[in-house]
């Protein structure tokens, strides 16, 4: 199941602003400036490790969303680059087949493909 990043961002925005902190003494989680019962997000955590996990969840989730978005963008960029290289190779192969098997012709086609890639970078980037 693919996570719905927009929905997760809405949940984070609607939650009590952080950072949150776990108070072992009061056995509750609340905003860092108020962990003594006045504005607890949740109480009766029961275990210290649960309290730490819950209190750090918003910051951790936000960080993970940023990483997912960064990797998604990187994957899209790599996909676009792959398309450009595939087109360049198809160009080389077609020209190579058209001109024959001479190595000088192949070098010329590689040079032309590189130029085509550079032009694509200039227009796309």
Overview of this protein structure:
The chain is mostly helical. The chain has one domain. It has 3 helices and 3 strands. Strands 1-2-3 form a 3-stranded antiparallel β-sheet. A hairpin with a 4-residue loop joins strand 1 and strand 2. Residues 61-88 form a coiled coil. Keywords: Coiled coil.
Oligomer: single chain
- Briefly note the structural class of the backbone: mainly alpha
> Could you spell the SSE succession in H and E letters?
HEEEHH
Determine the fraction of residues in helical runs and give it as a percent range. Answer: 55-70%
What percentage of the residues does DSSP assign to strands (E)?
Answer: 5-15%
Strand order within the widest beta sheet: 1-2-3
Integer average pLDDT: 79
Number of helices: 3
State the domain count. 1
**Unreliable runs:** none
CA-atom Rg in angstroms: 27 Å
User: Major sheet, described briefly?
Assistant: 3 strands, antiparallel
- Spatial shape: rod-shaped
Distance between the termini: 33 Å
Number-wise, the strands total 3
Keywords: Coiled coil
Coiled coil: 61-88
């Amino acid at each position: 199941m693919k996570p719905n990043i927009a929905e997760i961002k809405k949940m984070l925005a609607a939650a009590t602003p952080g950072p949150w902190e776990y108070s072992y003494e009061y056995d509750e989680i609340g905003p860092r400036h108020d962990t003594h019962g006045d504005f607890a997000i949740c109480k009766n955590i029961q275990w210290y490790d649960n309290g730490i996990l819950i209190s750090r969840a918003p910051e951790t989730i936000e960080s993970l969303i940023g990483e997912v978005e960064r990797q998604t963008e990187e994957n899209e960029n790599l996909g676009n680059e792959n398309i450009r290289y595939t087109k360049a190779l198809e160009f080389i192969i077609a020209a190579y087949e058209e001109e024959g098997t001479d190595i000088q012709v192949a070098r010329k086609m590689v040079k032309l493909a590189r130029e085509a890639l550079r032009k694509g970078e200039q227009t796309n980037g």
